[in-house]
Amino acid sequence: MGAYLDKPVTEKETESGQGNGLTYGATCMQGWRVKQEDAHNCIIDLNGEWSMFAVYDGHGGDEVSRYTASRLPDYFKEREFWASDDFVATLQQIFIDFDDVLRSEEVMKQLKKMAKEGSGTSERGDDADNSSDECDRIQTIEEILFLQVVCYAVTKKFKFEILAIDKRFVTTLCLLRELRDDEESEDDSDFTEPDVEAEDEECDDEDDMDVLQDVDIPGGLETPGEDSGTTACVCLMNKQRIIVANAGDSRAVLCRGGIAVDLSIDHKPEDDIEKKRIVNAGGYVNEDGRVNGGLNLSRAFGDHSYKKNFDLPLRDQMITALPDVRVETLQPSDEFLVLACDGIWCVCYIIKIALCMLCDHCLAPTTAGDGTGCDNMTVIITTITH
């Protein structure tokens, strides 16, 4: 079934609280996805005056979204953003610096450990478990066979490069390069009986296996933080202001006098400003709106496999964590704020029903459609008391 279960996980995790003139409720649901990759923050007392609400929509794994939810609030406090005269520049720099931390050796080790541990979200039916296990077994066999073929095929005459990996699926493209003259005999070019001295062959095997040293079998060919990431839609509020810093396609909407006011902008690869940056960094956007044929959003924490142009700063890479920042002065007519991942917004804009009912309403009856209603779902609603 691929990225979907045989039946959705509809149990909800909810929380609520109040303080600083705010009352909030939040819920998240795994839905049809194989695992829950969303994470969120609801922190009434960030520093005494400010509150923080955020949603993180992970992809390629849940480790980056979980790590971000656990560490980003402290990062905001350490930087004391509230003392800044320029919230926009300060929050943008915080996002970029935090993304830089994500690729440090220490954090990469933590992300790898978190990826192996998993999120622990496994409330599924028996059929779903069996289906998922079977998919994992088949996928692992395919990976082992692929690597076995590659390792035996690689001699002094050929090398290979792993060019593309898309989430849990092995979409590896082998590029065979001829390293010898055309004068080599046919026997040498036939892998059944390669005419290579044992010492040289052993040496080649060691060199070529170096390329595979970071590949874990079983468990896929991805590197946590390199091939996984998360959106981030962060709302910081005190009694005078509301600030939203957003990278990705999660959204924040403020209800002001009964009218929905967008406080964030979706970042999609096909948008002119995004596409220009992607192309300038050496990438491309295909006809399906995916960066280099892979990721279907253009701003996120993590995803450092898309951030390898060393001639450019981190904020100018194909995928960037640079957020758009919106600063609003609170008004008496401001009623409530909604923060949600795209699993909610793709289905309905904003409706005043209970949050758990909202998730059920957004859930697709099957996975036979275009994927709408099949994603993880997280939503936070915060009411504002004047």
Automatic annotation (TrEMBL):
Q: Which residues form a coiled coil?
A: none
Might you give the EC number(s) for this enzyme? 3.1.3.16
Its keywords, alphabetically, are: Hydrolase, Magnesium, Manganese, Metal-binding, Protein phosphatase
What the entry lists under Gene3D superfamilies is as follows: PPM-type phosphatase domain
Ranges where the record places region Disordered: 113-133, 184-207
Which cofactor(s) does the record list? Mn(2+)
User: PPM-type phosphatase domain: from which residue to which, for each copy?
Assistant: 23-384
GO MF: metal ion binding; protein serine/threonine phosphatase activity
Q: Which Pfam families does UniProt cross-reference here?
A: PP2C
Query: Which family, according to the similarity comment?
Result: Belongs to the PP2C family.
Name of the protein described by the UniProt record: protein-serine/threonine phosphatase
> What is the source species?
Angiostrongylus costaricensis (Nematode worm)
